[in-house]
Predict the structure of histidine kinase.
Amino acid sequence: MTSKQLQILTIDDSLADALVLRSCLKQAFPAGFDLTHVTNAESGLEALRENPFDCVFLDYLLGDDDGLDVLRRIRASGDDVPIIAFSGNGCEDVAVEALKRGAQDYMVKSRLTSEAIERALSNAIEKVALARELKEKRQELEDFAHVAAHDLRGPLTTIRGMVSLLIDGIGGQCDRDATELLKRVEASSFRMFRLLDALMEYAESGRSQKQLVAVNLSTVLSAVLENLFARIESSGARMRHAKLPEVLGDDVALTQLLQNLIANAIKFCRESPPIVTIGAQKEGGNWVISVADNGIGIAPEHLDRIFAPFKRLHTQSEFEGSGIGLATCRKIVDQHGGELRVESKLGCGTTFFVTLRAACASHTNLTIGRPHIRGTQPSANAEL
């Protein structure tokens, strides 16, 4: 643990509980700390915007506010501050949900001790520090991928052009085997172009910050279906969808997200014509968008692999693709502070679920992009 004085925020509507936390912190960190106490969600979010904190203690129940919703809003803003969620009564479901939404730990108020607080806070700060380092390394790799994909397009364009000239110019002078080899080279160059395009798409999906605004997903879906018109027609796919809601997001990124999911649903279908169903269900302040298909499905042991870049479950001869589409989807959803999960049964189709924040006038000023890394300078917080 660092020797500098810790800056800690607690968002809790109970003054008594905040005083208990302060007492535990005083025993755990005798060198001193600054504890800022706010009693509601909006005050907590404002404090985070204005000051750098080393850790946040977030109550699950905040009067009319939902602590888990506050947690989602913090992460949706791009803030990676360490967060420890706690509640009056231990609840496994709440703990699991808090960790899924980005908390580093979960504690029960009745079991707070100085030792438990010190251990949880130290672990939370260390986890975030490691996550930041990993993000920086990943960003370096993505920057390299972007440059490499861009620079490789030039030579590849030359190769493809020369092969086309050879096929057109001397095709009649070559024997059948030579012409077939040239056509294979041309086909390989087209596949390489598609791979480079997918690689650049993945690398660019998080390179710039974007404002979250109200996006009509029905409008987005119409654009996606227009983009995929030829693929839908050639496959005989049937598209089923109801009216979709408005969510907070970036329309370009969400178009890419839905297009990747629907294109996958159409592609991974062998015998019967694809049937793709797009739906939406409200869950609190969020919408869960589903994209279901009647395709080949995914074996349980492979469900954790499908969102990793270049992890393919099938050969190119079975199903063409870059192996980057779902990784790009995960990246887009993460940048929106949402959740992407999948349910599937081998031979019985697959359903992807995307959780996004419902559009609301009071939350249209959020920004997505590269995570905001908090500074370490002490802030002028009022001590409790």
